[in-house]
Design brief:
The chain has 161 residues and is mainly alpha-helical. The chain is 18% helix and 2% strand. It contains two helices and two strands; from the N terminus they run ααββ.
Length: 161
């Protein structure tokens, strides 16, 4: 047989090429040319069918008539219990005992019998605690035991608070 490209006879040392059979299956790439368009067509048909109007569904069944049904009412009742107020804690009172020593120095005077109050300087208190312990607080200006160091706010009343 002759070479189709140069029209020369085939040399005797080369085998004669065998003709290709006509019923040979198509290669894999050629099958894709048919399968892919067929799948695309099936996809578009499925979308078209599924996108139909959902309100136009045909239903041959007759709707059942609504029958009156009893209604259920649930009522929950809660009972509130009053809790007693807690008892207040015991009050602890701390008592401090203070020993007060008062020294009163009085000069003996001759009794003139005038009935006048003794000298206001004859009674003195070192602080307001001594005056309160003696029962003399509050002391007003002019009374025995009044001193300016006991009157903090200088209002004329010593040991007033």
């Amino acid at each position: 047989m002759a070479n189709p490209y140069n029209n020369q006879p085939t040399p005797p040392w080369q085998p004669t090429p065998t003709p290709t059979p006509a019923s040979r299956p198509a290669p894999k790439w050629a099958r894709k040319r048919y399968v892919l368009p067929a799948l695309a067509l099936a996809l578009f048909l499925g979308i078209g069918i599924g996108a139909g109007d959902p309100d136009k569904t045909t239903n041959d069944a007759k709707p059942a008539a609504a029958k009156p049904q009893p209604t259920v009412t649930v009522t929950a009742t809660t009972t509130a219990t009053a809790t007693a107020e807690p008892e207040p804690a015991a009050t602890v009172t701390a008592t401090k005992t203070v020993k007060v020593t008062r020294t009163v120095t009085a000069q003996a005077e001759a009794d003139t019998g005038s009935g006048a109050d003794p000298d206001p300087g004859s009674v003195s208190y070192a602080n307001c605690s001594e005056a309160r312990a003696a029962g003399a607080a509050p002391i007003h200006r002019g009374e025995p035991g009044y001193a300016s160091h006991l009157d903090r706010d200088n209002d004329g009343v010593a040991c007033d608070s």
